[in-house]
Write a structure and sequence with these properties.
The chain is mainly alpha-helical. 60% of the residues lie in helices and 10% in strands. It has helices at 10-14, 24-44, 50-60, 67-74, 78-90, 112-133, 138-154, and strands spanning 65-66, 94-99, 102-110. Strands 1-3-2 form a three-stranded antiparallel beta sheet. Strand 2 (94-99) and strand 3 (102-110) form a beta hairpin. The chain is elongated.
């Protein structure tokens, strides 16, 4: 039995989907993948992952950080964040300090080696930003940052720091 396939109607043909490159999300993902990939290579050469960098930078900002604060900064589950902290401990970059009588209440701090590494990693982050965004003027960079922060805030993805 031969069945006849229908050709698309004229209305459906006239409503062809927009090209991939017409979508902002395509360009955000495309640029993000390249920015992230290059940065990943830079920090891996220093012996850490991008996730570990985020954890180190979060710990750098405070004298001591509660485990819950780090979980929020990393956007991970408690178990996944705990594995990151364990890797940082194994590398001698961070340490947990448990409260007396409550092993669940722990503060996280950087070791001397961790405090020494963060400025080097921050310089790599700055260099990566310069590599990708250095051709933009200061106003364009600020507008791009503000647009990204506005999207994050609008969608409730994370508290946006206001500096």
């Amino acid at each position: 039995m031969i069945t006849k396939t229908r050709s698309p109607s004229r209305a459906a043909a006239a409503e062809a989907p927009a090209p991939l490159e017409a979508h902002l999300g395509f360009w955000l993902r495309f640029v993000s993948n390249h920015v992230s990939s290059r940065f990943q290579q830079l920090v891996l050469a220093e012996g850490v992952t991008v996730t570990e960098w985020v954890a180190l930078r979060t710990l750098w900002a405070r004298t001591e950080t509660r485990h819950a604060d780090l979980i929020e900064a990393l956007g991970m589950t408690k178990g996944a964040a705990s594995k990151v902290v364990t890797r940082l401990e194994e590398k001698g970059l961070a340490q947990r300090q448990f409260s007396e009588g409550n092993a669940r209440d722990q503060a996280l701090t950087l070791t001397r080696a961790g405090r020494a590494l963060v400025p080097r990693l921050a310089a790599l982050a700055d260099a990566n930003d310069e590599h990708f965004f250095g051709h933009l003027g200061a106003a364009e960079r600020q507008a791009l940052r503000a647009a990204m922060q506005a999207l994050v805030q609008h969608h409730g993805l994370k508290d946006v720091p206001t500096d």
